[in-house]
Design a protein that fits this description.
about 35% helix; about 15% strand; 6-stranded parallel beta sheet; alpha/beta; about 375 residues
Length: about 375
């Protein structure tokens, strides 16, 4: 049975995002391994709000309108183009994609490919400040209603900030699903009282796999010298200063993935890294400093020394994950905080394994239910 996965894809955003690609690959791989009868397909779906986005011309739709940021982006455009081509290649070589591309006007024709059951998720597809209430992300097309489960989508930083009207609309949409697995902790207790199906907090798809599962897509070591990986999804002066100071104190080279073109003379800039290279850079780093949720996850997978900084649209998911792992001391705001000297990865593996198994059980059980229907 073909199961369509609908999620946020880097093919249609301003800037490609390793986490976006890897969560889709991970969910595809997990579902592929659950039952020989399941044939997961990542539906090449562009939500309405992203129709005017162009990854090769991100300046057209940037959040940051200041001259300096836009100039940095323009100077980094050659790397942006290389990165996008690598990401696109990964999608179509490492994941089974739908035969056609779809929009809201054509999505119901996906039945022509034999797809009749759906998983919506993961990542921030329910962040209405970014995507609105896209019908595809909420299984609101006729072909999806009652034939879909949600796995690990997340809302914006605080579900409590939604207005009553927004909550009412969301609750109505969530009843399109036969089951709702949410990545956020905060909304679960609220939604359990209003959604007719099971609501459960689950882990991100990249945590459904073990670190060895990523071996098939990790590139060879990219750098012979010892280095600190500094991956910035959004510029943070304090985080950059902390990364530079930490690298200097430990005698490490800085490899940076960001659009700060002015750092080309100081660091080894690597925005052109593809998914495989990104994983390699995390795996072989001496230390990882980031404000990316998924970079944090892979630092955990590869048992790295790491520090995570807060970031708009990312605070809750980073804070919640670190709190569940008793790693709050690795969360920084200005880099001046006192941090724990050592990370107990034996304890972390135990905690993650328990969550992984519970989430896998939920996903497998709910898929069986909709496939029987």
């Amino acid at each position: 049975m073909k199961i369509g996965i609908i999620t946020y894809e880097s093919l249609y955003c301003n800037f490609t995002n390793y986490g976006t690609v890897l969560q889709a690959w991970a969910l595809f791989k997990v579902v592929s391994g659950l039952d020989i009868l399941y044939e997961p397909v990542l539906i090449d779906y562009c939500p309405d709000i992203m129709h005017d986005k162009d990854p090769l011309n991100p300046m057209k739709n940037m959040w940051d309108m200041d001259y300096e940021t836009r100039k940095m982006c323009e100077l980094s455009l050659p790397s942006i183009k290389i990165n996008f081509e690598k990401i696109r290649k990964f999608y179509f070589e490492k994941i089974r994609m739908s035969d056609r591309s779809y929009t809201s006007a054509t999505i119901n024709k996906v039945v022509d490919e034999g797809i009749s059951k759906f998983i919506c998720g993961s990542d921030s597809i329910w962040d209405i400040t970014e995507f609105g209430m896209d019908r595809g992300f909420f299984a609101d097309y006729p072909i999806m209603q009652g034939n879909s489960i949600a796995y690990a989508p997340s809302f914006q930083d605080s579900f409590s900030e939604y207005s009553q009207e927004e909550r009412s609309r969301l609750i109505k949409l969530l009843n399109n699903f036969s089951a709702v697995g949410i990545r956020d902790e905060e909304p679960v207790s609220v939604l359990c009282n209003y959604v007719n199906s099971e609501v459960k907090r689950v882990v991100d798809p990249t945590l459904l796999l073990k670190n060895s599962d990523f071996d098939e897509i990790v590139a060879e070591k990219q750098e012979s010298e010892r280095y600190l990986l500094y991956y910035s999804r959004r510029y943070n002066e304090a985080m950059e200063r902390f990364a530079v100071e930490t690298a200097k104190a430990r005698g490490l080279k800085v490899i940076e993935i960001s659009l700060r073109h002015e750092n080309y003379e100081r660091h080894r800039m690597f925005y052109e890294a593809g998914v495989e290279e990104f994983l390699s850079l995390v795996k072989y780093a001496d230390c990882v400093i980031t404000n990316s949720f998924h970079c944090l996850i892979f630092a955990l997978h590869f048992e790295k020394d790491f520090y995570a900084f807060t970031r708009e649209h990312c605070n809750n998911k980073i804070c919640e994950l670190l709190a569940r792992l008793n790693l709050e001391g690795r969360l920084l705001k200005d880099g001046c905080e006192k941090t724990k000297s050592k990370i107990d990865y034996l304890d972390i593996k135990d905690r993650l394994e328990k969550e992984r198994l519970e989430s896998l059980e939920f996903l497998e059980r709910q898929l069986k239910d909709i496939c029987r229907g």
